[in-house]
């Protein structure tokens, strides 16, 4: 291929990079590929890329030379220092107006930092969330680009050609916003993914250990649920997993060690929620549940030494499954409500103009959390673009209220059976807290004022007026400071 004739440059031929390169090429774009290990480039060109519009580059200089200007170069390398090191190597080779695209799972604050540096050099930078795993990368992922707005017209034809589509045909890719908005929305997506997976795991545990159901029985339940309001990719693959057997006929899922891994995006989401003072309790519990699962050796000892006092399952199974279905759906609503609150808070902090309905649309296809449920979120924000919480939308308010009886029964059953449901429980606690006009924080503030003179506000005075009580009679009138609420 001659200089400047490749439509796109792509760096990194691991699983996601290789599949995304094939996707881009299949949409009519020629691609110049580069990998730090030249042997991987050769293997790709001699294998899956053979006979297609690919050219290999032995060096970054060769890649830059091969791509037409202004260049579109996609980086798919491990998040962290590897991205910075690659940028350091590329910057001297690029020209004014060239676009660097980070398609990895970078922390959004790193993207903000990199964007400022790249733009100061006359280049453009995009941090794009890519969701859907290897299959999505190949056949159509959900894409969440953000960064230099001037880059969008140039990358839009490629991104909207390769992305997934909703059932109505809309592209699951739109410009998210400035700065690190794209990677931030992808981070929240991953946090919600943590929550969804844990919720499904808790329901599975209640079926398996609580109701004593077999894998085929549970498979049939998830298959039924996937035909209703819980229709989603994660419910679908749970159905498939429960029906998958080893060559000897035993269930593969029963052979898997119960110690969950993670790559850190869930932790980032929870950490950001703490920074933004947002009650992301469900996703937080999902992250903590993975930590607890990893303590396998300790749990084995504890199981032998700590004997619970629990009841045997005695419920009607059909009614129990109906309660689980309602609990799962209601908790899922809470998870998204919390995620959207975090997005709203971070948007205010970073001065992003996020289109929340558009985010739901982007997530409807290609990504791990894709579901029919997201169409309802899109409609909620179409009805009220300023909606502050999904629980206040008429549809979702009614959906949760009509399911809370079954939701509560499911959690009571879990407590009696001694089966942990941290996310189902956290969701209900948030729901009950959010709908409560008066919480016990008045006592908490009295305690803070008692031991630290932190002051408090009064219900019989305007907000913003702070008071202190000399609770002991010898504390004096000096206060620490007004508090933030």
Write a structural description.
The structure is a single chain. 52% of the residues lie in helices and 7% in strands. It is built from 20 helices and seven strands. It has a seven-stranded mixed β-sheet with strand order 3-2-1-4-5-6-7, with helices on both faces. Strand 5, helix 5 and strand 6 form a beta-alpha-beta unit. Helix 8 crosses helix 12, helix 8 packs antiparallel against helix 14 and helix 11 packs across helix 12. The N and C termini lie far apart (61 Å). The mean pLDDT is 95.
Report the principal-axis shape. globular
Count of separate DSSP helical elements:
20
Give a count of the beta strands, DSSP E runs of length 2 or more: 7
**SSE ordering:** EHEHEHEHEHEHEHHHHHHHHHHHHHH
Any low-confidence stretches, pLDDT <50, length ≥5?
none
End-to-end gap: 61 Å
The major beta sheet can be summarized as: 7 strands, mixed
**Sheet with the most strands: spatial strand order:** 3-2-1-4-5-6-7
How much strand content do the residues show? 5-15%
Structural class of the secondary structure composition? alpha/beta
Rg, nearest Å: 26 Å
Helix content: 40-55%
User: What number is the mean pLDDT?
Assistant: 95
Give the assembly state of these chains. single chain
């Amino acid at each position: 291929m001659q200089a400047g004739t490749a439509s796109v440059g792509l760096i990194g031929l691991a699983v996601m990079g290789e599949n995304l390169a094939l996707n881009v090429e299949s949409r009519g774009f020629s691609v110049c590929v580069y990998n730090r290990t030249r042997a991987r480039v050769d293997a790709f060109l001699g294998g899956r890329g053979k006979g297609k519009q690919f050219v290999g580059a032995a060096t970054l200089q060769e890649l830059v030379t091969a791509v037409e200007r202004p260049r579109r170069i996609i980086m798919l390398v491990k998040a962290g220092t590897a991205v910075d090191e690659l940028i350091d190597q590329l910057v001297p080779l690029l020209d004014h107006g060239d676009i660097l695209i980070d398609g990895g799972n970078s922390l959004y604050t790193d993207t903000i930092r990199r964007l400022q540096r790249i733009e100061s050099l006359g280049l453009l930078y995009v941090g794009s969330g890519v969701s859907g795993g290897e299959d999505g990368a190949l056949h159509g992922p959900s894409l969440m680009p953000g960064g230099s707005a001037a880059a969008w017209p140039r990358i839009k034809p490629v991104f909207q050609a390769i992305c997934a589509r909703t059932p109505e045909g809309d592209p699951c890719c739109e410009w998210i916003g400035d700065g690190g908005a794209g990677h931030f929305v992808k981070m929240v997506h991953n946090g919600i993914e943590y929550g969804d997976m844990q919720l499904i795991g808790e329901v599975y545990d209640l079926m398996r250990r609580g109701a004593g159901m077999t894998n085929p029985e549970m498979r049939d339940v998830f298959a039924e649920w996937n035909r209703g309001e819980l229709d989603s990719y994660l419910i679908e693959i749970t159905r498939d997993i429960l029906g998958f057997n080893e060559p000897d006929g035993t269930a593969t899922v029963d052979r898997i060690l119960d110690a969950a891994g993670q790559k850190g995006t869930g932790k980032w989401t929870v950490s950001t929620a703490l920074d933004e003072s947002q009650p992301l309790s469900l996703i937080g519990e999902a992250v903590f549940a993975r930590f607890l699962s990893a303590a396998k050796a300790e749990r084995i000892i504890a199981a032998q030494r700590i004997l619970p006092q629990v009841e045997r399952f005695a419920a009607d199974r059909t009614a129990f499954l109906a309660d689980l279905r309602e609990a799962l759906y209601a908790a899922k609503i809470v998870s998204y409500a919390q995620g959207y609150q975090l997005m709203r808070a971070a948007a205010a902090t970073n001065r992003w103009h996020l289109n929340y309905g558009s985010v739901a649309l982007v997530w409807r296809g290609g990504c791990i959390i894709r579901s029919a449920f997201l169409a309802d979120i899109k409609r909620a924000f179409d009805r009220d673009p300023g909606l502050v919480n999904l629980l206040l939308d008429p549809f979702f308010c009614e959906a949760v209220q009509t399911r809370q009886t079954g939701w509560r029964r499911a959690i009571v059953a879990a407590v009696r059976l001694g089966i942990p449901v941290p996310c189902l429980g956290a969701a209900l606690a948030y729901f009950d807290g959010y709908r409560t006009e008066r919480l016990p924080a008045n006592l908490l503030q009295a305690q803070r004022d008692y031991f630290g003179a932190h002051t408090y506000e009064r219900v019989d005075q305007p907000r913003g007026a702070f008071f202190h009580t000399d609770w002991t009679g010898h504390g004096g009138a000096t206060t620490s400071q007004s508090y933030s609420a």
